[in-house]
Specification:
alpha/beta; Spore Coat Polysaccharide Biosynthesis Protein SpsA, Chain A; two-stranded parallel ribbon; 6 strands; about 15% strand
């Protein structure tokens, strides 16, 4: 799920320390790095479920092999459920939904989620996020009730989703957790991870270059 990197509309909780233009630049670098890693895969098709007024931006991206799907629904839960519904109706048997702004997202986590779903060992796959939510969710079929009644953007999203899955008698497996970059402390954590991981630096060249250029990190 993604949106065009418009100042004042993305990564607003990073302001301060960033200004709105810097936050939009950072978001775009992460988005482009993620798409550059995921789109060439021969194992899955990569789609962007784009927010309102963002289609033109994604149509202009140079990355190839990306399908575009408009988001539908009023709440985040409704929009997420609509992605699963639309792609399953298009013929996909498994759908894995991730955020477009997770710098440490790995193709390996998506591959693991695909493995779990394809072998029938789980109805739901979740990638926990350190803030109490999740950055990845995979399903074999749409499950509208899994997204209803959840108070989004809170520290209890993962816990509440697991409780809802138990109520629905859905089997759940998890993949490796990670973190989003929403506030200044997250940005500092990402800086440290870049310093420590050559692999991460290689996978996120635009993001690393931006941080060195704009923040002198």
């Amino acid at each position: 799920m993604g949106r065009a990197p418009v100042a004042g509309r993305v990564k607003t909780r990073l302001c301060p320390p960033l200004d709105p233009e810097q936050a939009a630049e950072f978001y775009e670098c992460v988005l482009r790095d993620v798409l550059h890693e995921l789109a060439p895969s021969t194992r899955w098709d990569t789609w962007v479920a784009y927010a309102e007024r963002s289609r033109d931006y994604f149509q202009r991206l140079p990355e190839h092999g990306i399908g575009l799907l408009p988001q539908r629904g009023a709440s985040l839960g409704e929009r997420m459920h609509a992605v699963f519904t639309d792609l399953c109706h298009a013929g996909y048997r498994q759908v894995v939904l991730v955020g477009s702004d997770i710098p440490t997202l790995t193709a390996a986590s998506i591959g693991k989620a695909c493995d779990v779903l394809q072998t029938g060992r789980s109805d739901v796959v979740l990638g926990p996020a350190d803030d109490g939510g999740y950055y990845l969710i995979g399903l074999n079929r749409p499950e509208e009730s899994l997204f209803s009644g959840i108070v989004w953007s809170t520290a209890s999203v993962l816990e509440d989703t697991l409780a809802r899955a138990r109520q629905l008698d859905l089997r759940v497996r998890t993949v490796a957790g990670t973190y989003d970059v929403d506030v200044a402390e997250d940005l500092e954590r990402l800086r440290r991870d870049f310093e420590c991981s050559r692999t991460l630096r290689g996978r996120r060249p635009r993001t690393r270059a931006w941080m060195r250029r704009r923040l002198h990190l």
